[in-house]
């Protein structure tokens, strides 16, 4: 029975692949997400990471993300999520370019995506080395990117995960300009997905800059957006959820089939102080 099942699965896979190549079936969408994990700090008390990590893993497993960017995670947090065996991650620590400090890591489902290339850059005047940028006073800020091959469609694309500064007004504005330049430099005409905590509302100059070469998944969704507008709640179940600061951007020509802000909670507690944002995306089959 197992051999028969495997044989049938193989035939169906071959049939799907051949029909996809002929353009007779729609390519399967990628389930894309961005998720600020909230760093691991004991000062969060009952909301500290050890009390949340299984909730985060369960959420990722249940919603079946294909690829997602994370922000704020320390290496131990990323290793915890990587206990989900179908996932691997890339990304370096923002403090030293190795493992120290928070990461803007990218997780991907190994059965769907093949990693081709990855690297990082810092949001500063010297993006090739660790350091603070412009008027940022607290932290180094880093962007991780990866080139993937979609094993279902054979298509290659680039994915970026980034975390903008929360204090520096100039730093956020200049980070938007830098992202636009670096995405063009790294990805060229290939399809792009960019996710992150931009610490910026849609009316800001930096978000408008991102919307030049890319498209906001919420505004582009062919179905009505699901969930609240706001993406940050600070672990407060009564938060007003008015401000959107976490985004998914996609290349022009992409189809955004769904977009949602996931408000999953368990026993009156959120898995993070941000909600994950998710979208089902079909990337353009031709370069722009």
From TrEMBL:
Keywords: Endonuclease, Exonuclease, Hydrolase, Nuclease, Signal. GO terms for molecular function: 3'-5'-RNA exonuclease activity; endonuclease activity. It comes from the Bacteria. Residues 1-23 form the signal peptide. CDD domains: EEP-1 (cd09083). The keyword Ribosomal protein does not apply. InterPro entries: CCR4/nocturin_mRNA_transcr, Endo/exonu/phosph_ase_sf, Endo/exonuclease/phosphatase. SUPFAM superfamilies: DNase I-like (SSF56219). Residues 33-274 form the Endonuclease/exonuclease/phosphatase domain. Pfam families: Exo_endo_phos. This is Endonuclease/exonuclease/phosphatase family protein.
């Amino acid at each position: 029975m197992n051999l028969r099942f495997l044989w049938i699965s193989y035939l169906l896979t071959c049939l799907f692949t051949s029909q996809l190549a002929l353009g007779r079936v729609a390519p399967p969408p990628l389930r894309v997400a961005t998720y600020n994990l909230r760093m691991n700090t004991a000062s969060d008390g009952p909301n500290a990471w050890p009390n949340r990590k299984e909730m985060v893993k369960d959420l990722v497993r249940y919603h079946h993300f294909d690829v997602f960017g994370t922000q704020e995670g320390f290496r131990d947090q990323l290793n915890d999520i990587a206990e989900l065996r179908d996932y691997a991650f890339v990304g370096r620590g923002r403090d030293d370019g190795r493992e120290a400090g928070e990461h803007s890591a990218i997780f991907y489902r190994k059965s769907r995506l093949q990693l081709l290339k990855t690297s990082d850059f810092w949001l500063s005047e010297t993006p090739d080395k660790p350091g603070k940028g412009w008027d940022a006073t607290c932290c180094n800020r880093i962007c991780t990117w990866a080139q993937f091959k979609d094993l279902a469609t054979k298509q290659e694309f680039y994915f970026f995960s980034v975390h903008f500064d929360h204090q520096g007004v100039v730093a956020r504005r200049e980070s938007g300009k830098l992202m636009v330049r670096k995405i063009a430099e790294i990805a060229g005409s290939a399809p792009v997905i960019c996710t992150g905590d931009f610490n910026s509302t849609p009316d800001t100059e930096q978000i408008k800059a991102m919307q030049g070469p890319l498209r906001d998944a919420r505004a582009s969704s062919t179905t009505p957006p699901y969930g609240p507008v706001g993406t940050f709640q600070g672990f407060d179940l009564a938060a007003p959820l008015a401000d959107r600061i976490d985004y998914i951007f996609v290349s022009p020509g992409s189809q955004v089939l769904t977009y949602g802000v996931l408000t999953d909670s368990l026993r009156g507690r959120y898995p993070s102080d941000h909600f994950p944002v998710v979208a089902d995306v079909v990337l353009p089959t031709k370069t722009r």
